[in-house]
Amino acid sequence: MTEAAQIPPALVQRQALDQAAARVIWLLSRDGPEPDLDAALTPISALALLGLQELCTRFALDGLERDLFLLASGPELSLETAGTLAAHPLAVEGRATPVLAEAVLGPEAVDALGPARHLRDAGLVALAPGPVLAHRPLSVDAAVVHALRGTPQPCGALMPALTPLAPGAES
Fold it and tell me: Residue 117 in contact with residue 50, Cβ under 8 Å?
């Protein structure tokens, strides 16, 4: 039996999510060396198609967009990430906000969250309603979370959006 056959797909996905969670925790704390998510996912992706890599490829996410998506997905990645986000002074209701994203990723992060920009236009990240943009919690739809976790078939509402884009293409 091969190594890939011995490792359940859910465990492979969990390993990938743990690496993504480590990236988010580092973004929030900047403690220690910066984790290289791509390098960490390479050996894991040899075992199975990873939900995170599939989403990044299908939606042609660049590094900033991927990190924004991971911040918005933070509470779904792990209990540790959820707790770290909840404890952050710029988080609201345990979720990342545009002002938190700007603090950890720079001013271009807020621009990348515009309504006509890729993450929101594709439905990967949503902003909760509220009067002040900076403090509106970021969220990820349940169907996207299932795709991130490697669910083979996301719900029907997400399927029309799962059309691969060329790298650097804006929707």
Answer: no
Strand, helix or coil for residue 138 = strand
Q: Which of 34, 156, 135 is nearest to 90 (CA)?
A: 135
Q: Please tell me the distance from the alpha carbon of residue 155 to that of residue 54, in angstroms, as a whole number.
A: 16
Q: How far apart are CA 167 and CA 140, in angstroms?
A: 22
Cα 122 to Cα 27: distance, rounded to the nearest angstrom? 24
Whole-model pTM: value is 0.84
Q: Residues 11-43: pLDDT tens digits? A: 999 999 999 999 999 999 999 999 999 999 999
Closest CA to 143 of 154, 127, 153: 154
CA 111 – CA 117 distance, rounded (Å): 8
